[in-house]
Amino acid sequence: TRSVKMLNVKLVLTFLHKYGIAVSTTLCNAIVDGNREATLKLLWQVFQKWHVPAVIHNDELKREIRSLYH
Q1: Distance CA 52, CA 27 (A)
Q2: Vertex 20, ends 15 and 24: CA angle to 5°?
Q3: Are 32 and 6 in contact, with CB atoms under 8 Å apart?
Q4: Does the N terminus or the C terminus of the chain have fewer Cβ atoms within 10 A?
Q5: Which residues does 10 contact at the CB level (< 8 Å), separation at least 6?
Q6: Which helix (H) or strand (E) holds 70?
Q7: Is residue 31 a contact partner of residue 16, using CB atoms and an 8 Å limit?
Q8: Angle, helices 2-18/36-50, rounded to nearest 10 degrees
Q9: Sign, CA torsion 43/15/31/28
Q10: Mean pLDDT score of the chain
Q11: Mean pLDDT across 37-61
C-alpha cells in the first residue's frame, strides 16, 4: 500500500540524511509517486557520496556536468 511505501521511503531518507545526504520534505512523496527525476537525483547523490570520490575527482566531475549544459 501507499502508506507502507511512504514509511519505507521515510526510513531510507532518514538514514541518508543522518549520513549527510540532503533530502527535502517533498522527496518522499515524489519517490513514492514514481517521479523519475527525484529518484535519479537521490540515487546520484548516494552514488556521489559513497562511490564517485573513490573513482574520480570532484573537479573533474563538475567540469563534465557543466559541459553537458553548455
Answers
A1: 23
A2: 75
A3: yes
A4: C
A5: 28
A6: none
A7: no
A8: 30
A9: negative
A10: 87
A11: 81
How many residues belong to the chain? Answer: 70
Instruction: Say which amino acid occupies 55.
Output: V
- CA 33 vs CA 15, 19, 43: distances in Å: 20, 24, 16
61 falls in which pLDDT band (50, 70, 90)?
confident
Q: What is the mean pLDDT of residues 44-53?
A: 80
4, amino acid identity: V
Between CA 51 and CA 33 the distance in angstroms is 27
